[in-house]
């Protein structure tokens, strides 16, 4: 390999070292911003359902359906995103790994429970109203995401939390687990955004509130969809950032 010229040696390394510094963002402030954004998404979804869609109930009416989007965004997007970022916290990089595994799995399990409750709400609404289930692309995508999520959690529990799982199995499954973690999050975001759009098309039909006229509800819900999308993209970007990844370790503590 040819040696770099003096100019290359003088300019190249400086540019190489300066760029990461210019783009470097501390993890904890970024995480705090991401948490605030996630809470904003949940708050806006609750506000939309309360202010424009009639509030919440368990009577099988449209107010029962309103639990569906709130629980889905809270569980399948925000809480799931928090679970995905556990191993990016610098404090998790030293000491026993088992407590952080338990936290990661518990957050994911909490997200799954909220997701199941969200599905129960929409099925209860459809059945009480005589509306067919599972006919739209949104419903197919959403249910597929939940099924993939359940498989992901079960496989992760078996591979990383059960003490008799062999080391070679964990090493083999780890990149698969990481890949599907990001995939499930983006599928969740896509499902939520498509659900918001579908709800607006169903709800804003008459001449004074037609979706194409962009009433205040449509502006609010469209903005919410964009914020959910931004949240998902930022979480995936954090997961892909090399400097925020937990260093691999072959110590016994890391293999608990």
TrEMBL record:
Question: A single Gene Ontology molecular function, please?
Answer: transmembrane ascorbate ferrireductase activity
Q: Which UniProt keywords apply?
A: Electron transport, Endosome, Glycoprotein, Heme, Iron, Lysosome, Membrane, Metal-binding, Oxidoreductase, Translocase, Transmembrane, Transmembrane helix, Transport
Membrane topology per record:
Multi-pass membrane protein
Compartments (UniProt record): Late endosome membrane; Lysosome membrane
* PROSITE patterns for this protein: CYTOCHROME_B561
Per the record, what is one GO cellular component? late endosome membrane
Q: Which InterPro entries does UniProt cross-reference here?
A: CYB561/CYBRD1-like, Cyt_b561/ferric_Rdtase_TM
Give the Enzyme Commission number. 7.2.1.3
UniProt main location, coarse: membrane
Substrates-to-products reaction catalysed: Fe(3+)(out) + L-ascorbate(in) = monodehydro-L-ascorbate radical(in) + Fe(2+)(out) + H(+)
Keyword Ion transport attached: no
Domain Cytochrome b561 per the UniProt entry, residue ranges:
33-240
Give the Pfam families listed for this entry. Answer: Cytochrom_B561
**Which coenzyme or cofactor does it need?**
heme b
The cross-references to SMART domains, in alphabetical order and at most eight, read: B561 (SM00665)
Which residues span the membrane?
27-49, 70-90, 102-125, 137-164, 176-197, 218-240
User: Its function?
Assistant: Transmembrane reductase that uses ascorbate as an electron donor in the cytoplasm and transfers electrons across membranes to reduce iron cations Fe(3+) into Fe(2+) in the lumen of the late endosome and lysosome. Reduced iron can then be extruded from the late endosome and lysosome to the cytoplasm by divalent metal-specific transporters. It is therefore most probably involved in endosomal and lysosomal cellular iron homeostasis.
Q: How does it assemble?
A: Homodimer.
Name-wise, this protein is Lysosomal membrane ascorbate-dependent ferrireductase CYB561A3
| Source organism per UniProt | Quiscalus mexicanus (Great-tailed grackle)
